[in-house]
Amino acid sequence: MRKTALLLTALGIISGVAYAEQPELKVKSVGQYIEIDNTSGAEDIGEKVHFGNKVSLSYGKDWSFGLMARKAWKTDTDDGIHSTGHRIDLDAWKKMGDNFSIGARWRQEKSYDRYYLRTKYSYGMFSGDFDIAYQSNNSEAGRKSGDRDGYYFEGTPVSVKLGPATVGYYFKTETPIAAGSDFNGAGIDHWYRHQLRVGMPVYQGEKLNIGVQYGWEFANDIEVSGDKTDNKFTLKHDNNSHILWLTASYQVTENLTVTGSYEYDMFKWEKEGNGSSYVSNGSNKTTNGSLDSDKYYGELQIGWTYKF
User: Fold this and answer.
1) DSSP label at 3?
2) How many domains does the chain have?
3) Model confidence over 33-86: pLDDT tens digits?
4) Structural domain boundaries enclosing 140
5) C-alpha distances out from residue 96 to 66, 93, 120, 121, Å
6) Is 289 buried (19+), middle (13-18) or exposed (0-12) by CB count in 10 A?
7) Which site among 3, 78, 152, 301 is 20 to 30 Å from 170 CA-CA?
8) In what order do the strands lie in the sheet with 232-237?
């Protein structure tokens, strides 16, 4: 009887450990935010006002997932409120050890779908992240006369922590595939942005944390390509643009945190191409191709996160 009791106890312990080690899909946090984007000379409230919802999940120790869904409106005291689109992001991350992770994202908007491969790392004082994506545009006009499919790259491949400050190199590129080949008309062949970023905490308290980051955009290149480009031009930011970010978080309770951030971009427009007809670039929005328009950009976000 004693041996039987010991055997049953051992089996109970083993089965209990095995059950405890089974991975579970858990909700880690939920949150919401409001974001107001605007450029100088645009709407008096916001050319885009976003309302977003976020959910973070985990599966075991190595997998994490995220869902973000938001709606955007154009808001002006004279013109009223008008819907301008939506976005859904589905994220998945897999830890490959203590210092390296790989991930994927599916971004869905009305005008395009974007499919990402992602990576991030952290080794001592060094860290970084990098995204590569294929963008499939949903134009009814098709590839020849509508918006073209393209590649998208963005990331901070290397950051170095120096005392309280973190210094990093950031870049972002967009490259339509069809420019110069089967596209009937003039379009953007590529757009590159390169920045040096420096960030550090300003205040760290028991509940309140405030941080600041500065970005110097030292290189910005854009090119018009495709058919009928002789009399075309576009606009790009100059090679001496400045961006400032302010961030803050306040821990209301052990689980609830309120966050806020503000981005302010300062730049000048430069003309690319010698023509007189403007080629619109969706990522560099300006009013009718005017060198004197939209020289400042602001982005305000306020939100909350509840962790379980």
Assistant:
1) H
2) 1
3) 999 988 776 666 677 899 999 999 999 999 999 999 999 998 877 788 888 889
4) 25-307
5) 18, 10, 10, 10
6) middle
7) 301
8) 269-272, 232-237, 277-278
